[in-house]
Design brief:
Number of domains: 3
Radius of gyration: 27 Å
Distance between the termini: 36 Å
Shape: elongated
Protein name: DUF4123 domain-containing protein
Number of helices: 18
Structural class: alpha+beta
Pfam family, one: DUF4123
Amino acid sequence: MHADVSENAGFGYPLPTAKELTELEGIRPLDGDALHGPIPEELKNALFGQLTQNQGPKLRTYAVLDATVIFGLAEILHSSGLSHQFLYSGAAGEELSDVGPWLVELSEDNSFARNLLTVGDGPSHYWNKRPGIFFRSYLPIEPIAKHLRHFTRVRIDEERWALFRFWEPKIAAVYFGSLPGRHELFARWCYDSNQRVIERWVMVYCDPVWMLTAPSTTGQHGKVIKIVEEEDRRRFSDVAWLQGVNEIAKSVSQPQWSNASQIDVERTTAIVANWAAGYGISGKRDLGRLVNVALRIGCRFDMDPRFSVWIAALGNMNVPANIRTLALQEKAAEYLHDTSPFAERLKMVERVIAHHIERDSDKFAPLDACRLVDHKLSHDAHFEFCNFVSGRMEMDPKLPPWPEGVICALACLLGACFLTDPSRRVWVTSLRDATDLTDLRMRLKRFRQKEPI
């Protein structure tokens, strides 16, 4: 099981509560369409503001940037007028300058610094590319570069070493977010002997933006500390997995009626990828097929009794995964082709609700409601489906006291597990807010007519 996918500051992991860690509200980038506009005040304060008004050393702003993200980064820095150093030394410093990390001191009025903070489609708008991480320090660039070079290569075990790409925002988010609970390691990153090197890290490319302030005390100088633990490596693996999930989510298509946001699709993709792993399915193309189906019939269609025959075939490990997913996709397409269009089935749900409103003493039985919405299924399939949905209803304490027939009709339309389906979030949020069945019916009608709720 992998981390949940969510658009938060920890890229799938919630940020811990710690006095050193602060979420920054109201941070927004420069707009690429607004030429020469000022850096938004909150962003400027986070990256270029001074901690005190007293005369004294200036708090500087640094970034570690990835040359694999910004094409021609070395040449850009050489012509930028900014102080910069490559963090790999020796032979690696000569061979990897086009793919490795560059430390650069930024100034507020420099055009390259502004490009790092600009969102847009232009080739020099780097915000959405997330090219690195930012931090603040009172020290000049030379001692900082020397300090950070200690962390670019870490020991895995007694025999193996590995490069540590701590400047990648997704890696930095899960790694630095865990440091407040690991004092010795936290201090090692922020201090060199008894001298504080880094005052605070500013995770600008996270959502929300957050800041990590150095601990007030140093660690034990000279103590051997493992920079990357096994738990860190597991989290990095989850980050890579979530990145793959997001790539799949961007490639799938959703039905027009879905109303799902991109993050809803990403969460749906993560759920499908988790349960599909139990069937030996992990390839991007295969998962893409399953997600396309899930967006139409529900993210947990593997649990839906209506599709148990499909799932049984999906679990036949003697057949290659690509053949199994292709066959399931074709079955789903056939099923959707043979059923009534979505708008027509939505009308049937409205009809079930109208029946309950007009004939309160003569309610629609769940079985009859399901038959009305999904006429393709057999009696036994409907019966099993209704029992499954009823069991799910008992597990949801937030469910309004709607008649069971109404819930079953909605489940036939949106999926057996629609109440916890991320791709149905907009629907469920609106429907939960319905004050009564009349209001519920009107909300469904607005969905059908694509009116605002």
